[in-house]
Every structure is written in C-alpha cells, then in structure tokens.
Design brief:
Layout lengths: L1 H20 L2 H7 L13 H4 L7 H8 L2 E3 L8 H17 L2 E5 L5 H15 L3 H5 L10 E4 L14 E8 L13 H25 L6 H4 L6 E8 L9 E6 L5 E5 L6 E5 L2 E4 L7 E5 L1 H6 L9 E4 L7 E8 L30 H11 L13
Parallel strand pairs: 1-2
Antiparallel strand pairs: 2-10, 3-4, 4-5, 5-12, 6-11, 7-10, 7-12, 8-9, 8-11
Helix pairs in contact: 5-8, 6-8
Bound molecules: N-oxalylglycine and nickel (II) ion.
Length: 368
C-alpha cells in the first residue's frame, strides 16, 4: 500500500517537472538524454506488437491506396469505381490512402517543414506557446493526457482550431502561420470532396454529410515525434480511435503508424505524396456502425531524424455546436435499428477528454 503511494507521488512530481520545462520531449532530446525517463516507460501489453501471419499480402487489402484523379474523374464509371473502393475501405478498416488528391506536393512539404520549423525553434520561443488550455485557438503541448495516461508518449503536439471560427493570424506562431492557414483551406476542400463521395457510398444524396456539417469544424493536430533513444520501451502515440467524423492525415515517410484489425497491427506503408484518410468515431456513430473507426497507434520513432505528421480532425470538438447527431434516419430500419442515442459533439468530446487515450473505445458509452 505504502509503496504504491510513494511510487505514484514520485510519478506525479516527475510529470510536473517534465511539464514545467514547457519544451516537451524535444527538450529532453536537446538535453542529450540517452535513456528515456521512467514516465515514458509503457507496460508490456502496450508495447506488444501482434503481427498478421502474412503481413505483406494482407496489409495491401486492409489499407488500400485510392487514386482520386485530381478530383476530376474522366468518366462516370471511374467515379463509381472510386466510390466503391472508398465504401469497401470504410467498411473494412476505416482506413485508406489517397493519391492525386488535388493538394500540391509542394504545399505538403511546406506544411511538414512548418511543423518541423516550429518544433526546432529555440526553447525560449517554444515555451511561450506551451500550455494545457485546450480551449485556446493555438496550444503547444506534450501529451494532452499527460496526467491521466498510464505512461507518457514520445511525442509533442501543437493544436490549432481552424474552423468554424478561424483563429486570428497573430495568435498563430509566425514561423508556420501562413502555411497553416493555406493548408487548412486545402485540407477542408479535400474533406468536403471526400464527404460527397462518402455520402454516395452510403446511398445518400452527395451533399448529405456536408449539409449536416461534418466538414464544419477543423481541429489540426501537428505532431512531432523526436528520435527516441530507447524505442523498444515507449510508444509515439498510444492506441486510440479518432474522435472526428473524418481525419485527413499528412504523414511522414518515416513509418510508425499501425492500424489494429482483428487483433493484429498492420503497418501503414509510406506512399510518397499520399494522404491517409480514416473514418472517425462520429462517422461510425452516424452511420450506425456501417463505416468503422479503427483503433491505431504510432510506434516510437526509431529513425535518426524527427517524424512529423499533421492530423486534420473534422469535428467542432468542444466548440459551440447545438446540432444533435445520431444514426442517420435513411440508414436505419426495423432490421437495423439505431445503435446509438443522439448526442452533441461536445458531449462526445468531453467524455473522450476526461477518459484520455486509455486504450478503451469511447463509442460503447453512447450505445442505446
Ligand atoms: C492522430 C494520429 C497518427 C500519426 O493524430 O490521431 O493517429 O501518424 N496520428 O501521427
Ligand atoms: Ni489517430
């Protein structure tokens, strides 16, 4: 009893000391640590890596790469085929990659450079943005669930709330301000296009998902995964599903993202120029489990340079949004009754934030 108490007090003060540096995991790497502090040590169950038997064959089917033809399909058949591919992927794993998505590769590179640039600025500059008030338009933090998770992850993140009410440009850091604004517009256009195809994949009017505001809110999570000196002891991001309708992820060519399917982890293979798209919990809820929001995680970075990724979460999160969301009427029937009650996005997000990324799913809490 007494030992547990002492151990947990130690942990809390170590978490606080880390948090108070205000320069995240990158700060530890800058200080030259060769062993990771024990607050980052994960349990063996978190670190376990069950692999599919013939991974090279299976993962290709699990996370397909879909060519969006620059969002301008040459004929109706090509368009129909793409919708079918998106439908299959959304039903099977909820994950797919897109190429020829219409966002210039140059902008993708500039966005990754912007995130890298922010995190590689001097500690004095970074510190000014660091905090845990997630209601702010811009916040730089390390481990949003630092004090509630079992172990910390080898990752720093800055979060920008871009829509429905865009931040004042002066509230964004000068080093990546312009590119954040430009990329968020482009990512929103792409998401609106994807929501049209997803609506059709569900047999709905193409505007359905946009009309119910699925693309109205945008929370951008810009992750920085520094190289980890002991990657076998920690994780870059623990297992979770996304609390969005849809996530558009701009990945790095350094791998690390894994999707959990049928008890196995499938690596998402880096595809140059591609964006990773995944169904979030809110889309699973409104489709009454037709489309699935798969759990995924990120391994600690084993490379010698930092891994950067930008996740655009389409959701209004904790922002004011009175709209109620439940399974879409057209998708339910006597044989397929609604599995979830109607909720607001705020209710969903509050539940999620209180719980943290503890490895258990959030959706069951809202089941009827
Ligand atoms: C996320 C996420 C994956 C990555 O932000 O929810 O899963 O590769 N990110 O950073
Ligand atoms: Ni995620």
């Amino acid at each position: 009893m007494e030992t547990t108490k002492i151990a947990s007090y130690d942990r809390l003060s170590e978490l606080k000391a880390f948090d108070e540096t205000k320069i995240g995991v990158k700060g530890l790497v800058e200080a030259g640590v060769s062993k990771i502090p024990r607050i980052f040590h994960h349990s063996s169950s978190n670190l376990a890596n069950p692999r599919p038997i013939s991974s090279s064959v299976l993962h290709l089917n699990t996370i397909p790469t879909i060519d969006l033809s620059g969002r301008n399909f040459k004929d109706a058949i090509t368009r129909k085929n793409v919708i079918q591919e998106i439908k299959d992927a959304s039903e099977n794993s909820g994950f797919f990659q897109v190429t020829n998505h219409g966002i210039s590769l140059d902008l993708l590179e500039k966005m990754r450079d912007g995130v890298r640039g922010f995190n590689e600025q001097s500690p004095e500059v970074r510190k000014q943005f660091y905090g845990r008030d997630f209601s702010k338009d811009f916040v730089y933090t390390s481990n949003f669930d630092l004090y509630t998770s079992q172990a910390a992850s080898w990752r720093d993140t800055f979060i920008c709330f871009m829509a429905p009410n865009p931040p004042k440009p002066q509230d964004l850091p000068p080093i990546c301000r312009d590119v954040i604004i430009e990329y968020s517009k482009e990512a929103t256009n792409l998401a609106e296009f994807l929501f049209q195809l997803l609506s059709e994949a569900l047999g709905l009017n193409p505007n359905h998902l946009n009309d119910i505001d699925c693309s109205k809110g945008l929370r951008m999570l810009c992750h920085y995964y520094p190289p980890c000196p002991e990657p076998e002891l920690t994780i870059g991001g623990t297992k979770h599903s996304d609390s969005s309708f849809l996530t558009v992820l701009l990945p790095d060519l350094i791998e690390g993202l894994q999707v959990l399917r049928d008890g196995y982890y499938f690596d998402v293979p880096p595809v140059p120029g591609a964006l990773i798209i995944n169904v979030g919990d809110l889309l699973q809820l409104i489709t009454n489990d037709k489309f699935i929001s798969s759990e995924h995680r990120v391994l600690a970075n084993r490379a010698t340079r930092a891994r950067v990724s930008i996740a655009c979460f389409f959701t209004t999160g904790l922002r004011h949004n009175p709209r109620m969301y439940g399974p879409i009427k057209e998708l339910v029937s006597e044989d397929n009754p609604p599995k979830y009650r109607e909720i607001t996005i705020k209710e969903f997000t509050t539940h999620r934030n209180a719980k943290g990324l503890d490895g258990t799913p959030d959706l069951p809490h809202f089941k009827i």
